[in-house]
Design a protein that fits this description.
single chain, alpha/beta, five-stranded mixed β-sheet, 43% helix, 18% strand, globular, binds 5'-O-[(R)-(carboxyoxy)(hydroxy)phosphoryl]adenosine, binds zinc ion
């Protein structure tokens, strides 16, 4: 039974996990840096890189100890090699290279987005290719046709902000602190979305792209105008986001051709209101709906180990390793053939 050590350090979570080919997570640890970044209302790359460097070695040792295993028991080391904050990515990747060299194990340089994209298959053994994936995190918002391991067709992406970013900025405007997504979701549950009119950018347009910059600005204007209950603003923001997500995903389903399931992954997939809306959309199309448990949606190392296992299975066992000089990548699209999208402030 193949056993892979996964390492994740591309944003503000330092994480390690031990996962077997039969989808058992033998151990996993996640050290969040929320406290370190909270005073700044967002992730500060230099603080993140330093925190990863301080924590990663003891975290890996503790994860192995949790499982009662040693490095020698592991068949391969998988680490996020991009995309992400480059300082943090380098810390995890260099650590993985050192372990691979010391233990004479294959190194698997994993695309963080592929980790998110395949995480639903770690959670659900019955999920088969192809599936339509909404990948929504702090840095990305994409609709992807997942045809197989390493085979992704991007149908839509954001032309400005990522959806998680919009949640985080809404939280900041409402004084909810960082990280914003869960706080906005909690407050939204107590508000009335109909009390604050907000725009639905790109709704009804012929390509399944997203835009959240205008929605974010509208939230700021509603806040500054005064007179609104913050809970109503949070609810209105979340409902506008859901309306955009559902409209764009419906279009992507029409464009994708036959798929077996509608799937959501990435940090925003932890949002229960968004999950419920997507589940209803899937049901309307007679499709299965698959969402990993919330702890597998936000950044974690089990999904990185799993992406490594998927690659080993697809590429023929432990021979699937990458060279030890594999360079960390700040940008690494899942579908390199996808055209850049039109739009003023393209970030993702
Ligand atoms: O995948 P992830 O952990 O890190 C990235 O790769 O970006 O996603 C983090 C993002 C943050 O923007 C966070 O606010 C958002 O996911 N998020 C949520 C929720 N939980 C996390 N957004 C909405 N509702 C949530 N419950
Ligand atoms: Zn992520």
């Amino acid at each position: 039974m193949m056993l892979v050590l996964g390492i994740e350090s591309s944003c503000d979570e330092t994480a390690a996990a031990l996962v077997t080919a039969d989808r058992t997570i033998l151990a996993q640890r996640i050290a969040s840096q929320d406290e370190a970044h909270r005073p700044y209302g967002g992730v500060v790359p230099e603080i993140a890189a330093r925190a990863h460097a301080e924590r990663i070695a003891p975290l890996i040792a503790a994860t192995l100890a949790d499982a009662g295993l040693a490095l020698g028991d592991v068949d391969a080391i998988a680490a996020t090699a991009g995309p992400g904050l480059i300082g943090g990515v380098m810390v995890g990747l260099v650590t993985a290279k050192a372990l691979a060299m010391a233990g004479d194990k294959p190194l698997l340089a994993v695309n963080h987005l592929e980790g998110h994209a395949l995480s639903p298959r770690l959670a659900d053994p019955a999920l088969e290719f192809p599936y339509l994936l909404l990948l929504a995190s702090g840095g990305h918002c994409q609709l992807l046709l997942v045809e197989g391991v390493g085979r992704y067709r991007r149908l839509g992406t954001t032309i400005d902000d990522a959806l998680g970013e919009a949640f985080d900025k809404t939280a900041k405007v409402l004084g909810l602190g960082y990280p914003g997504g869960p706080a906005v979701e909690r407050l939204a549950a107590t508000g009335d979305a109909r009390k604050v009119p907000l725009p639905r950018p790109l709704l009804g347009t012929p390509e399944p792209h997203f835009s959240f910059a205008g929605l974010k600005s509208a939230v700021l204007r509603a806040r500054e105008a005064g007179g609104h209950d913050p809970a109503d603003i949070a609810a209105a923001f979340q409902q506008a986001a859901i309306d955009c997500v559902i409209d764009r995903t419906r279009l992507a389903l029409a464009l994708a051709g036959p798929v077996g399931a509608l799937v959501v992954a990435g940090g925003v997939a932890a949002n229960l209101a968004i999950r419920a809306a997507l589940e209803a959309l899937a049901a309307g199309h007679g499709l299965r709906f698959v969402a990993p448990p919330p702890a597998l949606c936000t950044d974690n190392a089990a999904m990185i180990a799993w992406a490594g296992l998927e690659r080993m299975a697809a590429e023929g066992g432990a021979g699937a390793g990458d060279p030890l000089d594999f360079a960390a990548r700040p940008r690494w699209p899942l579908d390199p053939a996808a055209e850049p999208v039109r739009g003023a402030g393209v970030k993702a």
